[in-house]
Amino acid sequence: MLSQLFIKNVAVIESASIDFENGFNVFTGETGAGKSILIDSINAVLGGRTSRDLVRTGENKAVVTAVFTDISEKAQRLLAELGYELEDGEELLVSREISAEGKSVCKVNMRPATASVLKQLSSVLIDVHGQHDSAVLQNPELHIGYIDSFGNTENELSAYKEAYKNYRETERAIKKISMDDSDKAARIDMLKYQIAEIENAAIEEGEEESLLALSKRIKSSENIMELISETVSALDGTDDMEGALEGLSIAVKNAGLLSEYFPGFDGLSEKFQEMYYEFEEFANDVKNAADELDFDPELQNRTEKRLDQIFRLKRKYGGSVESLMEYYQKAVTELESIEFSEETLDELNKKLSVLQSDMEKKAERLTEKRLAAAKAFEAAVADELSYLNMPSVRFSVNFERTDFSDSGCDNLEFYIATNAGEPLKPLAKIASGGELSRIMLSIKNVLADKDNVDTLIFDEVDTGISGSSAQKVGKKLKQVSRGRQIICVTHLAQVAAYADAHLLISKSTENGRAFTSVESLDDEGRVNELARIMGGDITDALKKSAKELLDSSRG
Q: pTM of the predicted model, to two decimals?
């Protein structure tokens, strides 16, 4: 569960440390006090999208840190898979820092993480339901996801998706080789021409590099010859200059004579001799290099023509010799497949028939499981709605058969009739804001046992309702909180009264700047806040009513 939330420099919140209890936690406060910022902060630390606008004006960065305790086995398994294994009983610390430049730094237990990692963790730690989720109900394309979640169709859906993928790949392969005779003949001619062009070029591995080096030497031959000539002269000498070899020869002879007078010269003659041989060998290598520079114009012409041929082929077939050879292999494979297309086509059609049968069977299993899940889902949601002051409501999942797609061959949509005697109609077209809130709460409660998430957050789930309906919502949230942690942002006293922990968000202005604070209320504070919510100006009569409401919620 979420044990603590620390927020620093997020919008109007300069600094706030919020402790949560196991059961039912509520936030209340006047409009504009910053309740939505709390939800934004929680979404941020769970890997949601952020922007630099979240950073308090004048500050360098915003920081949100969440501490989780009593981590579920499912969450611990995911943490281990992500490389953040926990010890038994260890707390989980998740933090996110957003700079004024918009950069984000995420950490899990003080170790670097990515927003994607936080997003994955959020799926097993917290489920946030806001007003946007009620709008999701108005998109029929998303309704199938609720049924799949409720019915645990993951295995059947995965098996179907694999079968559908195989079917579509084979279908595309058939389409690729199913061309008319004129197209086929033209393609064969083109492939044969391209294959022959590449084969006739007979480019060998490393040939281009060797030719480029040769071309460079040919173009620089005059300069190279000058360098060689100078080097040979330095070694062999000239009419006007003694060379290194002649100098070493004298050194060999003199060192031998000097060794008779100086013991330290022992062996020096041999070292000079070795140096002489090395220099002599080097001189021969340089002279041989000069022989290799005996280029004729024809060699230069052949080299440039060959390089030009390779360049044109590279430009035509991919930009490099490697790409050229890859194209060649693909062309050979495609030619073979076309030339044997009739045989291949027959085999593929037989394969497609088998795959279609497999896909249809798996789609049927998926549909059967969805139908069974939808029936149970209808009853469970209807029970929840009845409790939430919608006793005459009829809720139904409408199924239609569709063409095969990535999600199966089912098109389903939630239908509802809110009053007795009315026909069922698409939920998206007739439900009011208050009804959508209660329907969404009902669906969340029905799915609560399926997702194994320890913390549910409701952002103004009571929108559009009042009176006894609001009281029923409060009771329902209290009931759900017996099995998991509930955090709710509300503007209704009937909901807030049922909370185990009541947190007040208030805003003040100091030196021309707005500051938001979060305060945990005791019983007296709760009575005053409930009275404010009920009537605005706190009177003795309102305080009496608020106390009665609070006492009643505990009865």
A: 0.62
